[in-house]
Design a protein that fits this description.
This protein is of the alpha/beta class. Helices cover 54% and strands 9% of the residues. The chain binds 2-acetamido-2-deoxy-beta-D-glucopyranose. Pathway: Protein modification; protein glycosylation.
Length: 231
């Protein structure tokens, strides 16, 4: 008989267990509701580019193509994007003869001469200022490049795959000119996610190439950037 009384007074007896379960349930429910109401960067819904913004981007890309010497006269994009067009064979033949003229010494000077070089570069090459989709925002990538010369070509290539959520490492060949190195340092100051460094002198097909790539991965790791995939 005395054993039974003791059992009844025990807090964890079967009489109380439902109350405990209920209390825990309420506690976790409140805690979960509170926690899920805190907005996190990962789940934040990205505001997509509006039609007006897309029109502006299109206009800017057009400016970047206008800078290319004799591009417009030789390459007709509307025809080349439409193989059904009767003028297509002629347009394709003409476009295939056009080549990228990189030795344009005044090219960089026009950006240097402006009071805000970063803004001029950003606008001319239409670097994206926000991710294009929520999926891309949540899956940032890392890129490594090894470059030697030609800032003009580099800006065209870089702006084509630049996205603000990604991380970029640009390794500059130790043999590059001082001017080229300085130009890249300027680009680095314009974009917080572009990291630039000078490697050893790279020999053709030399072991310095994979070394530069691995150094890039190292540098990108140091930056504490949440990139998920390196290419
Ligand atoms: C392209 O167009 C320009 C101007 O019309 C012309 O001078 C040039 O020879 C053309 N061809 C190439 C391959 O650039």
């Amino acid at each position: 008989m005395s054993v039974r009384i003791h059992f009844r007074r025990n807090l964890f007896s079967f009489r109380h267990i439902e109350k405990w379960i209920f209390t825990f349930y309420i506690f976790f429910k409140i805690a979960f509701t509170f926690y899920s109401s805190i907005p996190s960067d990962e789940t934040e819904i990205l505001e997509p580019y509006s039609i007006v913004e897309f029109k502006q981007l299109k206009k800017r890309i057009s400016i970047a193509l206008d800078i290319l010497l004799s591009f417009r006269e030789n390459v007709s994009c509307p025809i080349l994007f439409n193989p059904e067009d009767q003028r297509y064979p002629e347009a394709a033949a003409k476009a295939s003869k056009w080549y990228f003229e990189s030795s344009d010494w005044n090219f960089w000077r026009q950006f240097e001469a402006t009071p805000n070089t970063c803004e001029a570069l950003q606008k001319t090459f239409s670097f994206f200022t926000k991710p294009l989709s929520q999926v891309e925002a949540e899956y940032p990538l890392a890129y490594g490049m090894l470059v030697y010369k030609d800032i003009k070509q580099l800006l065209y290539v870089l702006s084509a795959f630049y996205q603000p959520q990604n991380a970029y490492c640009i390794a500059i060949d130790g043999r590059s000119s001082g001017a080229f190195k300085t130009q890249l340092q300027t680009i680095q100051t314009c974009f917080p996610n572009i990291h630039v460094f000078v490697t050893k002198r790279i020999e053709y097909c030399g072991p310095q190439i994979p070394e530069a790539v691995l150094t890039c991965v190292d540098k990108l790791n140091e930056r504490n950037h949440p990139w998920k995939y390196f290419q």
